[in-house]
Predict the 3D structure of the following.
Amino acid sequence: MEKLIIIIIPTYNEEQIIQKTIKKIQNQINVYGYVKKICIIDSNSTDNTIAKIQEIKTDNIILFTEEEKRGIGSAYKNAIRAVSKLSPYAIITFDADGQHDVTFINKSIKLLNKYSYINASRFLEKSKINDKKYNRKIVTIIGNKLLKVVHPSLNKITDISSGLQIINFAIIQKINIDKLSDNYEFHVDLKKNICKLTQSITEIDIQFNNRINGNSKRNYNIIEKIKYIINFIK
């Protein structure tokens, strides 16, 4: 029996890029023994994101909507609750904005027979950051170092704030997702829980790209950077 992989994509005002992202993902999964579904969770977009999704929607695309925008963590948690009814073998968290390396999908699925959790890292030797406007690197590096001091179990992960990852759903079922952050710290909270539950962890080098059509939805001023680092070490 083929195993189900669900790729979760949160969206908010991504009308310019969402179709391209979906099509890239649809061209990726061709690993024998696995089937894919794309789960899009839209946080009440005010543009034509929903219409763009509907234009290319197939049986392998699931669309959920939130009544209001509460944060990327909230979107992921709602999507996880929804797809749990489908009994997936694993889930992939994936951004809609074009920055995530789509080749991670096949590479990580091929490792699922060896590992329960596979993280995409921007900081491995072969990884590349192509985003010239990427101004979070220093924050991420500092946060990684601080968090590893407080939580030594995270030493197997080089990129603690990475939003691109594949997780065996059996691990997700052991986590109380209600307690995870509703905001950008969701991925950090998730990794902290995963590292407590399993040692079956590895990472894959990736290419981190420019955001396509538009700017990052989060403005990283100095105050926000400090708050972000503080949230890392809670």
